């Protein structure tokens, strides 16, 4: 099994932070889960870079994945979240790019697994606008799936449980560790490795005090606005975290797994 992941911050793993300053994320967990579930080594590439729009994901990352030797067995593909946050939300172009990705993988004989990110809009500024764009985007994806009934798709956007606060990082935009674990479980199941969905036992109501909201806007919202005004991206100058095949050994996965209860 050779698993390649392309996309933006969702696939890079932002929000699932490691002690060394790097990030883990659902795609890393899927690679490890495949190795453990199949009981065989899995080669893994992650070309995702935070902040990327869907056009460079398809134009650059997909082509880089299809240029790998040997070819991937399966490519996971997510994109469009950053496009939804921009003023010019060109849905027709997004649909065109998705269909192009499907065609390119079919030509190459590589399985494509499409997936959507979770829905963060309940707690975001301008969340209603993003929620509506997400609804329109999913309707467009439904149309694509009707035209390509063989195409696999994991719909995380519609996962009601995943919308709850315990699954998200402090920036409210990116999934936290538990959110990435839940997405990984859904992807592994779609790839034939049945995996139980993690859930949160935290049922406390989310509270928002004025001071906490002011700190949130200062730490996360204002810097994002600044990048938009200066046409910068959080991914500027960054490179993919795993641009070449990394071998995941099942024995190493078992040794690093936490003890079962």
Structure explained in plain terms:
There is one protein chain. This protein has nine helices and six strands; from the N terminus they run βααβαβααβαβααβα. With 261 residues, the chain is an alpha/beta fold. It has one domain (2-197, 245-255): SGNH hydrolase (Rossmann fold, 3-Layer(aba) Sandwich). A six-stranded mixed β-sheet has the order 5-4-3-1-2-6, sandwiched between helices. Helix 2 crosses helix 7, helix 3 packs parallel to helix 5 (91-108) and helix 5 crosses helix 6. The chain starts with a strand and ends in a 5-residue tail after the last helix. 36% of the residues are buried. The mean pLDDT is 93.
Task: Give a quick precis of the structure.
This protein is of the alpha/beta class and 261 residues long.
Provide the structure class.
alpha/beta
Uncertain segments are none
Shape: globular
CATH architecture: 3-Layer(aba) Sandwich
Within CATH, the superfamily carries the name: SGNH hydrolase
Average pLDDT taken over every residue? 93
Rounded Rg: 18 Å
The DSSP helix count reads 9
Characterize the biggest β-sheet.
6 strands, mixed
The total domain count is: 1
Can you give keywords for this protein?
261 residues; alpha/beta; 44% helix
């Amino acid at each position: 099994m050779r698993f390649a992941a392309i996309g933006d911050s969702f696939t890079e793993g932002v929000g699932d932070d490691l002690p060394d300053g790097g990030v883990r994320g659902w795609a890393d967990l899927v690679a490890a889960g495949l190795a453990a579930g199949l009981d065989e080594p899995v080669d893994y590439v992650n070309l995702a870079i935070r902040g990327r729009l869907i056009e460079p994901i398809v134009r650059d990352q997909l082509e880089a994945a299809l240029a790998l030797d040997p070819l991937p067995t399966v490519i996971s593909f997510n994109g469009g979240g950053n496009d939804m946050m921009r003023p010019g939300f060109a849905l027709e172009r997004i649909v065109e790019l998705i269909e192009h990705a499907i065609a390119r993988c079919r030509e190459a004989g590589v399985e494509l697994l499409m997936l959507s990110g979770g829905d963060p809009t309940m707690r975001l500024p301008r969340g209603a606008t993003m929620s509506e764009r997400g609804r329109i985007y999913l309707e467009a994806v439904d149309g694509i799936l009707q035209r390509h009934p063989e195409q696999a798709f994991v719909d995380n956007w519609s996962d009601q449980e995943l919308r709850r606060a315990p699954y998200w990082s402090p920036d409210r935009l990116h999934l936290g560790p538990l959110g990435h674990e839940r997405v990984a479980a859904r992807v592994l199941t779609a790839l034939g490795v049945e995996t139980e969905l993690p859930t949160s036992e935290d049922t406390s109501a989310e509270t928002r005090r004025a001071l906490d909201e002011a700190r949130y806007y200062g730490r996360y919202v204002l810097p994002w606005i600044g990048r938009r005004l200066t046409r910068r991206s959080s991914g500027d100058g960054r490179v993919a975290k795993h641009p070449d095949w990394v071998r995941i050994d099942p024995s190493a996965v078992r040794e690093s797994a936490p003890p079962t209860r």
